[in-house]
């Protein structure tokens, strides 16, 4: 019985590390851009990295940027996994 428990926990760990290595793509819309930005992110990475990319593109302070998804503000400390993102989601970028 002990061996089965260990194998089960190993399989769970393996599956978990697999999902972390997969990238999902999100689309970011900004009124200042003609085309949306497509960004690939790990499900466990925070949206802070996306804010940094957007701030470089806009040449502004990342603290002035906010993301919205379906009308709700997303914290840069959140992850796609926290938001149950599967890929293909569209985020609105707001500049304060």
Automatic annotation (TrEMBL):
It is found in: Nucleus. One of its GO terms (biological process) is positive regulation of transcription by RNA polymerase II. One of its GO terms (cellular component) is nucleus. Residues 24-96 form the Ubiquitin-like domain. InterPro entries: NFATC2-Int_DNA_Repair, Rad60/SUMO-like_dom, Ubiquitin-like_dom, Ubiquitin-like_domsf. Keywords: Nucleus. Pfam families: Rad60-SLD. This is Ubiquitin-like domain-containing protein.
């Amino acid at each position: 019985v002990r061996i089965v428990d260990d194998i089960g926990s190993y399989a769970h760990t393996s599956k978990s590390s697999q999902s972390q290595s997969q990238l999902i793509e999100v689309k970011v819309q900004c009124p200042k851009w003609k085309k949306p930005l497509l960004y690939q992110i790990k499900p466990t990475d925070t949206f802070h990295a996306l804010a940094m990319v957007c701030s470089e593109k806009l040449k502004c302070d990342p603290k002035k940027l906010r993301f919205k998804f379906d009308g709700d503000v997303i914290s840069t400390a959140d992850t796609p996994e926290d938001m149950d993102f599967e890929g293909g989601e569209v985020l609105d970028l707001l500049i304060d």
